[in-house]
Amino acid sequence: MCAKSTVGKKAEATVEEKLESLYILQRIDSQIDKINFIKGELPMEVQDMEDEIVGLETRIQNVQSELTELEESASERLRIKEETKLQIQKLEKQQGSVKNNREFESISKEIELAKLEIELSDKKLRDSNEKMTLQVARLAEAEGALVAKHEELKIKKDELTIIEDETNKDLEKLQAQSDAAKANVDERLFKGYERIRRTYRNGLAIVSVDRDSCGGCFAKIPPQKQLEIKQRKKVIVCENCGRIFVYPKDQEQEDLNRPVEEAPKVTRSRSKRARQD
User: Fold this and answer.
1) Which domains are present in the chain?
2) Residue 191: is it exposed, middle or buried by C-beta count within 10 angstroms (0-12/13-18/19+)?
3) What letter would DSSP give residue 262?
4) Any idea of the CA torsion for 59, 62, 64, 69, to the nearest 10 degrees?
5) Shortest CA distance to 172 belongs to which of 28, 61, 21, 23?
6) Assuming Cys at both sites, which of 13, 47, 211, 213 could form a disulfide with 17, CB separation 3.0 to 4.6 Å?
7) What is the mean pLDDT of residues 140-155?
8) What is the reported pTM?
């Protein structure tokens, strides 16, 4: 019976290989996070300023439209006022040639109504002028704010451009490395990795043990668990913060190169004195 061919089949990665892949991905993503931190909130600030500029431009358009309506209304009221004055002059001439008191009183009432119309026009003109004065002030304020905001936006954009010029090449390179590293990570572990990264502001999902403590939350790790982490036989998470522990190869090499501390020698006199005590 022929043995089954294994050509084309990729052996499943060991837990140690999976954790090492996660550790490599975390190091790359942390460098990306560092670059994005250097950029800070400038992109969001630029976007907010652009939104404010759109708002100011809309406000200016609205004020200008209101000013146009007020000017048209004032112009129409002036026209009515002038026509009413001409009507009064005409009525006064007619009043001089009436034949009886009834016609005289009728024309007098029309003149009186026309004069009231002129008074009303004057009042509306005053109101319109007051409103126009207020709108002109609002327009000047909005236009001044728009100019200032454009200047501020230019400064922020220049800052962002400088930072992006300095970091974009590195960021693109790191992003490509991150995408390549993701291909080597177990899908289930990667989902957990992404979930943990979203949980913490520093984006740390994969940590090592540092001075007997979790490298993420600094909770103390028992010696037995530290030993299991170093064995790399299973995925172990911090019971306090949920981050995934790794024992990276570079840390292992450092531990191997670290000199072993020698126990202090006890002199014969000290030893003798100790026995006497």
Assistant:
1) 40-182 (1.10.287.1700), 186-257 (no CATH)
2) exposed
3) P
4) -160
5) 28
6) 13
7) 95
8) 0.51
